[in-house]
Amino acid sequence: MRTIEKINRKQESINHPLSIKLVVKIVATAVGFYVWGIDFIWVVLGVVFCWNILKGIASCLFSLIALIGFFWFLFTHIF
User: Fold this and answer.
1) How far apart are CA 14 and CA 17, in angstroms?
2) pLDDT tens per residue, range 24-64
3) Which of 14, 34, 53, 54 is deepest in the core (most CB within 10 A)?
């Protein structure tokens, strides 16, 4: 019974209506809008909606760079 009460207390303390992450996101968005204007909002929306596509492109570019580095090492140190 005591362990169940401890778990329930921990769960209640974790569920805050405003978390620190949310406050940081709101402040970062407000500062970005103030500094760069409405274009900042469009960039953020583009990143949010195209995140999976951007991760795939970044993964391909990273693989390409690793492959180029491997061949550069191969040709400069072995041949």
Assistant:
1) 9
2) 888 888 898 888 888 888 888 888 899 999 999 999 999 99
3) 54
CA 28-32-30 angle, to 5 degrees, is 55
What the block records as the tokens of 40 is: 């900042």
Mean pLDDT, residues 8-27 taken together: 69
Tell me the C-alpha to C-alpha distance, in Å, between residue 12 and each of 4, 16, 20, 22.
Answer: 12, 8, 16, 18
Give the Cα separation of 79 and 75 in Å (integer): 5
Place of tokens 């760069």: 36
Helix (H, G, I), strand (E, B) or coil at 17: coil
Phi and psi torsions of 3, nearest 5°: -65, -35
